[in-house]
Amino acid sequence: MKHFKHRLIYLIKGFLILIRPGVYLGFLSNIVLFKANLLRMTKWTAAQKKDGILNDFPSLIRNYDKRIELYDYILKRENLEHVKIDYLEFGVAAGGSFRYWNNANKHPESRFYGFDTFEGLPEDWGAFKKGDMSYNFPVVEGTRHEFVKGLFQETMNGFLQSHDIKSSSKRIIHLDADLFSSTLFVLTSLANFMKEGDIVLFDEFNVPNHEFMAFKCFTDSYYIKFELIGAVNNYYQVAFKIVK
Ligand SMILES: C[S@@+](CC[C@H](N)C(=O)[O-])C[C@H]1O[C@@H](n2cnc3c(N)ncnc32)[C@H](O)[C@@H]1O
To answer: Do 157 and 78 fall into the same domain?
Structure first.
């Protein structure tokens, strides 16, 4: 019986490959993927704790300024104001969040790295088109920061070879690149450098086919545990801490 079932599945698969439904129905794949990721995401959100951390779920209105509330909360909760940190932000654009962290952390030896094409998104993202969000290097106070211009996929290896981020005691990794491809690339590139206690922020986490899917693919494939320590705007902006 088992043998027969396997043969049948093999034949059906072969038939599907033969008639190539993807050629005619491929336009449906993103919708199907969206539904699957939405199910996965709501299962994930249902399992998250709300007591004892900042978590505004359910909130009726999205207020983008609430991300500052989240940053203030994380800064205080994790005592990040006066410790030496390496801050790595992926997706800088006009520098809103980059400036926040540069101003909020006061340690003279902290370092702030901002990665971006500075020529806009490399792919379409929802209503945004490739090339949208193009800005020059933002004006940032002090001399602790450095911008890395170009696609993450082209600059990351060189950066990791020329900068010692492995030995730093505390890292904040801020993922604000919107796209699935960019977010997954950064997470996988930094996987070997992630340490217990590192903070990982996402800026558009609850978008099913982008940051959430990148997070899901990453956490399903690497033995690294993320504990939610804050969330605003129904998990649009979230903060995690890496735990053992
Ligand atoms: C939403 S904006 C960042 C917003 C910014 N953090 C703020 O607080 O205003 C997203 C940025 O990610 C950048 N980006 C996305 N994918 C990228 C990639 N693969 N390489 C380099 N930059 C990328 C885009 O150029 C864009 O400027």
So the answer is: yes
Residue 177 CA to ligand 1 center (angstroms) comes to 4
CATH number at residue 115: 3.40.50.150
Q: Verify that 109 and 14 share a domain, yes or no.
A: no
pTM above 0.90, yes or no: yes
Q: Are residues 62 and 106 in the same domain?
A: yes
Say how many C-beta atoms besides its own lie within 10 A of residue 52's C-beta. 7
151 lines ligand 1 (CB under 6 A): yes
88 lines ligand 1 (CB under 6 A): no
**Over its length of 244 residues, how does the chain's per-residue pLDDT go in tens digits?**
889 999 999 999 999 999 999 999 999 999 999 999 999 999 999 999 889 999 999 999 999 999 999 999 999 999 999 999 999 999 999 999 999 999 999 999 999 999 999 999 999 999 999 999 999 999 999 999 999 999 999 999 999 999 999 888 899 999 999 999 999 999 999 999 999 999 999 999 999 999 999 999 999 999 899 999 999 999 999 999 999 8
Q: Please work out whether the CB of residue 68 comes within 6 Å of at least one atom of ligand 1.
A: no
Pocket lining: 92 vs ligand 1, CB cutoff 6 Å: yes
For residue 232, which of 85, 63, 97 has the smallest C-alpha distance? Answer: 63
Nearest one of 89, 99, 101 to 139, comparing CA atoms: 99
